[in-house]
Design the sequence.
């Protein structure tokens, strides 16, 4: 339906008119707004100022850009724009926000697809259309009140004209900016949605970070002045977050900038956040428990420990994950005791992947002189059969360069954990195995042979014992080990002993031989010649396919 609404060369406008009328008829139906897509997704292509068609001939594919003629499409786009403007004051705020979001397309100049050039004459024709539209929005907002979230979305849709353009359209956009309220609630909503000043503002290239930090500090001061009670302050933020969750189409990814600033300024606010989370598991501010808990720890570990115990006692995965996240700052503080480490062990062994992942990430917060503690904790980590969790865990020893502290016993522990992982995907998994193949070649080769045995015995084609061929990105380093000749003989005898096993064993064993011992030159070729000299028919088949 959306494509049918697009303007194309030689396409009669009667088709666009029919689709527009159909889409406009849907706007009044409440059920039309309850799905992933809305009627606006059908209508907004009428705002396109340019497009392209694709032609194919034999083996060639040609993209032909074109510009939409303003005079031809203006009546139809005005019809749609007026309908969208009427929706801005819709009693359902979510509908108003969707309508405001749709305005972004209505005021977008042609950019010049596929290196086509946009003339100033073409841009000027659209400028007059944009000015009329922006003035129509201004008049509607003056006549009828719109929710703050709708106003924010309108500003996001047209802000580029005020920030990056000059001329009449820019002036009209600034007139809309002047209508934005300066209330505490509006400023707080803006910060909760756009915590880093990116979505609704043009970033100031000169000391943006410092200026933005000062802006946040001023807002925190204003909120604290109006709501001196910590719980009232938290409830104010929770109410606004609830409005965002209910009515704002895009997930708010940056409320943390403001909330963390509030946490840093008040321990009572941290306590209020934690107490509310324990009283209301579904609270809008429960997501900020990690930051509140870490700040409370910085204030008093003796006060934070009972809070951790209460959160874990709920049995909720969300809070176990929150505690695990807070351990990054707990370990960095250096104020932990054995009881705290015991809690971390339980989190590392947690059956919930997200909890275990967050706990693993904390291991990198310990300094190198605590390498023995890191390794001991890593022993308890539960990666299950997840290649992603395995990659997270082994990052500690590869990217963070703690591999040198591992012993033979440690390597066996981590290789045992990898046995359950069907596919050894992940760069840091591969890097770990590459380093292990050189430093601990016997143990690593035994690991790969065990995996092949498992695949063959279970006849599981989905279990990939080794990253063969295109699956391998970090070469194994068996050839650089001191026992390379011994490994050749060990693998050859193992393959020979498995000649009666299922076909999958032989298939995977050949992959192992090729992956571990290529390129076949020098010592490898000499060994193969010796093997051939004493081979039977089945041995020759093994060698031929290796």
Sequence:
């Amino acid at each position: 339906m959306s494509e049918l609404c697009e303007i194309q060369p030689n396409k009669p406008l009667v088709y666009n008119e029919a689709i527009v009328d159909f889409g406009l008829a849907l706007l009044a139906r409440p059920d039309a707004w309850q799905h992933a897509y809305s009627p606006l997704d059908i209508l907004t292509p009428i705002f396109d100022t340019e497009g392209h068609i694709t032609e194919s001939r034999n083996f060639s594919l040609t993209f032909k850009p074109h510009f939409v003629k303003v005079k031809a499409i203006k009546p139809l786009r005005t019809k749609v724009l007026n309908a969208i403007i009427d929706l801005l004051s819709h009693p359902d705020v979510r509908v108003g926000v969707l309508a405001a979001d749709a305005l972004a397309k209505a005021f977008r100049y042609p950019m010049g697809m596929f290196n086509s050039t946009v003339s100033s004459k073409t841009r000027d024709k659209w400028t007059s259309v944009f000015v009329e539209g922006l003035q129509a929005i201004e008049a509607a907002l003056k006549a009828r009140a719109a929710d703050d979230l709708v106003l924010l979305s309108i500003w996001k849709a047209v802000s580029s004209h005020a920030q990056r353009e000059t001329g009449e359209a820019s002036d009209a956009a600034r007139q809309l900016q002047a209508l934005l309220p300066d209330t505490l609630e509006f400023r707080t909503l803006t910060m909760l949605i756009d915590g880093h000043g990116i979505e609704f503002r043009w970033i100031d290239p000169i000391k943006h970070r410092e200026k933005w930090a000062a802006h946040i500090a001023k807002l925190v001061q204003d909120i604290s002045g109006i709501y001196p009670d910590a719980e009232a302050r938290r409830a104010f933020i929770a109410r606004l977050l609830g409005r965002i969750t209910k009515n704002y189409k895009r997930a708010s990814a940056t409320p943390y900038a403001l909330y963390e600033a509030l946490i840093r300024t008040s321990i009572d606010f941290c306590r209020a956040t934690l107490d509310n989370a324990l009283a209301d598991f579904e609270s809008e501010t429960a997501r900020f428990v990690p930051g509140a808990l870490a700040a409370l720890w910085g204030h008093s570990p003796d006060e934070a420990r009972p809070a951790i115990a209460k959160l874990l006692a709920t049995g909720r995965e969300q809070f176990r994950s929150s505690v695990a996240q807070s351990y990054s700052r707990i370990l960095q503080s250096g104020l932990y005791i054995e009881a705290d480490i015991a809690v971390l062990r339980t989190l590392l062994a947690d059956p919930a992947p997200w909890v275990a992942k967050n706990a693993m990430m904390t291991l990198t917060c310990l300094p190198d002189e605590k390498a023995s503690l890191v390794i001991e904790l890593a022993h308890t980590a539960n990666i299950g059969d997840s290649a992603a969790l395995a990659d997270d865990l082994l990052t500690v020893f590869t990217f963070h360069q703690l591999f040198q502290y591992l012993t033979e016993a440690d390597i066996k522990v981590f290789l045992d954990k990898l046995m359950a992982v069907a596919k050894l995907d992940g760069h840091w998994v591969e890097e770990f195995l590459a380093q292990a193949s050189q430093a601990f070649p016997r143990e690593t080769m035994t690991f790969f042979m065990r995996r092949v045995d498992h695949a063959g015995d279970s006849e599981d084609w989905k279990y990939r014992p080794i990253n063969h061929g295109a699956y391998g990105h970090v070469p194994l380093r068996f050839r650089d080990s001191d026992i390379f000749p011994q490994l050749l003989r060990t693998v050859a005898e193992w393959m020979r002993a498995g000649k009666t096993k299922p076909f999958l064993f032989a298939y995977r064993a050949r992959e192992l031989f090729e992956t571990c011992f290529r390129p076949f030159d020098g010592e490898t070729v000499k060994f193969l010649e010796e093997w051939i000299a004493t081979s039977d028919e089945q041995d020759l088949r093994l060698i031929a396919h290796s």
